[in-house]
What does this fold into?
Amino acid sequence: MLDINLIRNNPNVVRADLKKRNEKEKLAWIDETIRLDKEWRGLRIKTDKLRHRRNEIALEIGKLKKEGKDTSEKIKEVAEIPKKIEEIEKEIQKKREEINYYLMRFPNILHETVPVGIDDHDNVEIKRIGSPPQFNFEPKSHLDILLDLDLIDQKRAAKITGHGFYYLKGDLVKLDRAIMSYAIDFLTERGYTLIEPPFMMKRKPYEGVTDLGDFENVMYKIENDDRYLIATSEHPMAAMFMNEVIHKDTLPIKLVGFSPCFRREVGTHGKYTKGLFRMHQFNKIEQFIFSPPDNSWEFHEELQKNSEELYKQLGLHFRVVNVCTGDIGAIAAKKYDIETWMIDGTFREVGSNSNCTDYQARRLNIRYRKEEGKPPAGYVHTLNNTALATSRAMLSIVEQFQREDGTITVPKVLRKYTGFEKIEKE
It folds into this structure.
């Protein structure tokens, strides 16, 4: 959520940002928000004046009584003031809700280094790590390999649940668990606290952590209940300190979340959906940091370094891109994506790293104070990073480490977790 003071005092900053994001339809919202804010402040002044007048009348009544004069008119006037205040406060609340409607829907202000572009084709490549594997045979897609090895059952999962769900079997399940254990150990050794969050959230905290459009496009709602299945552990971790004030000495708070993720993936028509790439249910290890505002950009780079090292140690070929204005989404001020090389020669996103600055914290009302007994100094910054989404990590491993005989080599860093060096048909 944007700070109303930014729109009051620097509306051109918001206008310029919306143009960079190609969200020109929201430009009219700025003038509407300014108009509503002026009306809201005018109503607040009215109630302050009425309260002041009520105090004045009380003094006047006391004076008249001492003088033995009639106080009936004054008593009548003072008796009407609470009703007037109540009516105006209803208007104040209505204006506040209208203002918040827009503030919750304006996107975050972008960092100056975010490239301007229309969609993911305009993301800017920063680096490539490793080289694509060289095969002396015709390589297969991960889904064909897993079906040949009888490690995945697509048809039976579709029969009982629908498209986008799978039964994972045997060594593929062990590989999934190995990836999770590897990422958890890697991050806890670096001082991140392991979190297994609730797998459901109420709507109010969810509105604080994500774009409101996600409720229709991403989340699964529990029928007849104010709860949603989480799309990522980032969300319950972000809401963990909702409506709290954190002492600055305890910052940064570094978390590594483990959870299954549930996504409807509505609106993905035309996007790559083959096999494990875009699933409705998958496991993920997520990095999350609550940071003081003055060094969140340093932590953004730390998170990126962590995720790159995880993929390097797996031995995968990947690249890093700086996500452009047309692809970044509403919550982040800047985002890097890691994209692994896939067997069709295309790099596709397997994880992202976002600095959300104070945007989420403002929506969730998470502030910090510098000294006990002092008022809050401001809002914390929140950062999130996909350490490893196991489905896409497995996809990359299967395709890049496949052998001519149809088996899969297990990356060295995972072997102490799997207990085997290759995956083959039982």
About this structure: DSSP finds 14 helices and 18 strands in the chain. Residues 4-103 form a domain with the Helix Hairpins fold (CATH 1.10.287.40). The CA atoms of residues 283 and 417 lie 16 Å apart. The two ends are 53 Å apart (CA to CA).
